[in-house]
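Ticket 4471: requesting a sanity check on a complex prediction with magnesium ion. Repro inputs:
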Amino acid sequence: MNQHKKQQSHPLDGLLRTDRIPHIWCPGCGIGTAFSSCLIAMKESGIDLKKTVMVSGIGCSGRGAGYANLDSYHTTHGRAIPFATGMKLANPELNVVVFSGDGDLFAIGGNHFIHAARRNVDLTIVCVNNFNYGMTGGQVAATTPLGAKTTTTPVGNPEPAFNLPLLAYASGATYVARWTILHTRDLTDCIEEAFLRRGFSFIEVLAPCPVNYGRRNKEKPLDTLRIYQEQTIIKNDAHPSELDIDFNRGVILGKFVDVERPTCSERYDDTCRPKELLEEEKAA
Amino acid sequence: MEKRKMLTGNYAAAHGARLARVEVVPVYPITPQTHIMEKMAAFVESGELDAEFVPVESEHSAMAVAIAAQATGARTFTASSAQGLVYMHENLFVASGLRLPVVMAMVNRTIGPPTTICPDLGDSLDQRDTGWIQIYTESAQEAHDMIIQAYRVGEDERVLLPVGICFEGMIISHYMEPVEILDQEKVDLFLPPYRPEHVILDPDRPMSVHQLVLDDSYYTEYRYQQQVAMEAAKGVIREVDEVFGEAFGRRYGGLISTEMMEDAEVALLTLGSMASTARAVVNQLRKDEGIPIGLVKLRVFRPFPDAELRESLSNLKAVAVLERDVSIGAGGAVYLELAHCLRKRHDSPLLTNYIIGLGGRDVTFEEIKDIALNLFEERDAEVMTNPIRWYQVRGL
Ligand SMILES: Cc1ncc(C[n+]2csc(CCOP(=O)(O)OP(=O)(O)O)c2C)c(N)n1
Ligand code: SF4
Ligand SMILES: [Mg+2]
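Returned structure tokens:
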């Protein structure tokens, strides 16, 4: 009995809502690995977890917030970023982390992403990119590679996909990185670093969805990991315009942007709030 | 030749849209509607349907694309549920305001929080005031047939309004039933191509659509025309049901369908899948217990069939409205409208309202029977005490 209990414990138990486990993620799904990287990074970064909030939208990835033993919010589909923005602006002391899927953040919620990056809201966005809408059964998304098969593109996707790091960079993000769930250590390090940066940080995590995306594209879970190993190139500081995803040509991973620029709140305080009030606040 | 096949409500609806030869299909996935979207994509890719399938980035865009495509004269089809349907809300007004007869499968699901993927009519009933015709169906077959009828109703020049064909998620969308898939040639005869004159974006005949009305010149008249069209839709829905019946042998009764109402003293009134269970209860109570009870199935919620309901309910002693929805702070959406439509008549029946089956909670034969027996007992009361009843709340 005891041994059984022991086997079931997990080093991240303190950060998990264990009463919500078993989780909904399928065997071979990459979300769990991305999620634990995120939790480990949170722990290691030393940020005050009592002042840390996780926000998700809707999707398999969007279940993240529901499993984190933090103040956490499961918002409507696409609205994780505006929700997080509201929190951060109302209570700038909070560390606000968005953990959500590619569909949630870049299809239905895409507009919010570019605006939060433009304003440089101090948020850390972790996007699990599994190239499709996993939760609804694997339809084509704004991130599905050209030619890939999904339930709504049975003969192949005719549309090109977003290059997410380029979009983040062009919109004004101050920290941009991409890893796969196979590159757990680099991924964790980057998320940790992003937590400690002020400004809009974006980390794209490529992750298998074997049940929907993998199956339709003839990729077994292990094949996907092999592709992540063999068809990727680590190139820190690569220009974001080089980052289109085409595994046949090789996909570039790394940290691409790490710059400083005044955050949304800083600029707002500078421009819109009376100096005396700010000083009073500081003194208090 | 008609083909009989085991189909889910979703596939039955998709086949309906295919047979209607829709030309543009913009959709965003959401459970429980998604299979319609996937089936439409498959029809397009296999060449069974000559249409543009547009995998848009949200429901709001789905309706925007549908409106624009319809405005160029293309017959369009989309589908949504729950959060997706309410997210479309703004554009639903545009479709009806511009008098574009888009057709949508509204596959009913709860609106969160709390999030569930189970049925509840709140999502489509919430679209009550958008100017869409709303038709509620009880089976996969009815969903199939009504998608086809919807185009003929919506495109009729006396109507020119968008139409939502509603059916409950999971219960109808996901369960399989034998469905007769209509014959394409016969559908082509029943449903001629869409050839609009009123709004048509055609470079050879320029037209400016959706102008500002900053003065008070015609906003009221514009709305009034929509109201007139809704009124006209009542007759058109009945007519189309007749013509459909002649062509395909199935009639649904138009705006409402009634059973065992001739000598009824009390009646159950419901809509959607619950009508099937209510029917079984009514049959049993009639046969085994000799209770004079009837059934009214509300098929069309917009336009609201006030005259029909008044006619079939007026002489009854009591009516129970069973519905899988609630307008929080008031009562069931259907009950509220019914109460309004029966008001002030001395021969109006007593009304009760049962909020039941919310979030897909199973509604059993026994429960409906209990409601029916209760109704029969209460039929001679002076007034209905506590008429709005939350029947299934646990822990009360
Ligand atoms: C307004 C609205 N539209 C559609 C849906 C249905 N829906 C739920 S999750 C999802 C896609 C999720 O995709 P993604 O964000 O990539 O997450 P994944 O499941 O792939 O991790 C969709 C379309 C919804 N919940 N709300
Ligand atoms: S459907 Fe795909 S993304 Fe969702 S849990 Fe399963 S494998 Fe993961
Ligand atoms: Mg995804």
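Notes from triage: Chain B has a mean pLDDT of 96. Leaving this open until the requester confirms.
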